[in-house]
Write a structure and sequence with these properties.
Mean pLDDT: 84
Shape: globular
CATH architecture of the domain at 32-252: Alpha-Beta Barrel
Number of helices: 16
Number of strands: 13
Structural class: alpha/beta
CATH class of the domain at 32-252: Alpha Beta
Largest sheet: 9 strands, mixed
Order of helices and strands: HHEHHEHEHEHHEHHEEEHHEHEEEEHHH
Radius of gyration: 22 Å
CATH superfamily of the domain at 32-252: Aldolase class I
Distance between the termini: 32 Å
Strand content: 5-15%
Low-confidence stretches: 246-258
Length: 379
């Protein structure tokens, strides 16, 4: 940690109220499968990830659930996030795992494209649907590239209705912004989001997502054209201003918006946060168990593996009660770093970069952040 960043953390600590809140929102992520029937060309699951969890395959579903219950019991109720890299609702383990965790009084978050609606209905009832939240992927771009595009869109809308009737909470609707949307179908995307709002009668956050990785032989987001970037900006303007004014979507935290804007300005300066030794609350609130049984606190720090779930003693403590210094040289995700190592201490991304570049003897870059801060204060 450089000297100026170290000064940012001097005399800063978490309040008892903050610690209590963190401990009440602990989460365990579970990966179930690498399979996904959609096989969207821009997704990591389209690249031959056709396997189920070797961890659960090896232990057997009952042994896995028993061990998970023993390890997690001291911290229950927890939030269990059922996540990718594939489509979790298509796994044979989805129904028994979700049903058991709900029976134990936990809350569930599912990251899903909702095509596995039959399994969702088997796992969740109207009695416990209020304890389930969904992060939904709306792959309109992939739908548009197929001959059955209208069927896929209709299926998606019908499944949204079923989920709403179960009483599940939709947090976000994530939509990868492929050229298929940006060239001729921006109006279709915006109208589809409005239709989802009408179906659900819920406030959720529609989130257009820039593509990362290879798509039809080009690497993104670098390959977006100027015209496509203009369309992306237009989509964000429509969603985050016009719709919010009518109370149709959740309002984003102003600090988050300010930091997103700042991130866009500094992309050419620094691609990753350098958070080594910064105190991080992630280890107080989160662990992830991947398809192979590897356990880690932070999905953004792949080398920091705690061990394998198969080898964990049944009464092993899995969460820290206090912040832990980050072991990573860099943070691969600004949102993770800011949310868990900076924001809890009242440090903004703006302040972090200003301190970082000042210590790097780059006063002209540090001035950029001072100017940005002064401009923000004037507004």
């Amino acid at each position: 940690m450089n000297n100026n960043i170290q000064k940012l953390f001097e005399n800063k600590s978490l309040s008892q109220e903050q610690i209590a809140s963190i401990l009440q929102h602990r989460q365990i992520d579970l990966e179930l499968t690498g399979k996904c029937s959609l096989m969207c060309p821009y997704c990591i699951s389209a690249n031959s990830k056709t396997y189920d969890s070797s961890l659960i395959n090896g232990l057997g579903i009952e042994a896995f659930l028993k061990k998970l219950e023993h390890i997690a019991k001291p911290y229950m109720p927890l939030l269990f996030a059922i996540i990718g890299p594939g489509e979790p609702t298509e796994s044979e383990y989805f129904v028994p795992i979700v049903k058991r965790l709900l029976e134990l009084g936990n809350n569930i978050k599912i990251m899903t494209n909702i095509r596995g609606i039959v399994n969702i209905q088997k796992a969740i009832s109207k009695e416990n649907g209020h304890r389930v939240q969904l992060v939904v992927s709306f792959h309109l771009g992939a739908f548009l590239e197929r001959q059955n595009r209208d069927y896929l869109r209709g299926e998606f809308m019908a499944n949204i209705k079923v989920i709403s009737e179960l009483g599940c909470k939709i947090n976000t609707i994530n939509t990868p912004l492929s050229p298929a949307i940006l060239h001729e179908n921006v109006a279709l995307y915006l109208s589809d989001i409005k239709e989802i709002m009408n179906i659900t009668q819920q406030q959720f956050q529609p989130t257009p997502v820039e593509m990362y990785g290879f798509y039809h032989g080009k690497r993104y987001p670098e390959s977006y054209t100027k015209e496509e970037l203009t369309q992306i900006a237009f989509i964000h303007e429509q969603l985050h201003y016009n719709y919010q004014q009518h109370g149709l979507v959740k309002k984003e935290d102003t600090n988050v918006i300010a930091n997103q804007q700042l991130e866009q300005q500094i992309q050419h300066l620094e691609n990753q946060l350098t958070l080594k030794q910064c105190p991080c609350v992630m280890m107080m609130k989160h662990i992830a168990i991947d398809l192979f049984g590897r356990v880690r606190y932070c999905n953004m720090v792949p080398p920091f593996i705690l061990g394998n779930f198969r080898d964990f003693p049944e009464h092993m403590p899995i969460f820290s009660n206090n912040p832990v210094q980050c072991p990573a040289d860099i943070c691969h995700c600004k949102s993770s770093g800011t949310a868990h190592a900076l924001f809890p201490y009242g440090i903004t991304l703006n302040q972090y970069y200003e301190a970082y570049y000042s210590d790097q003897n780059k006063p002209e870059i540090a001035k950029l952040f001072n100017d940005e801060k002064n401009e923000h204060n004037r507004k």
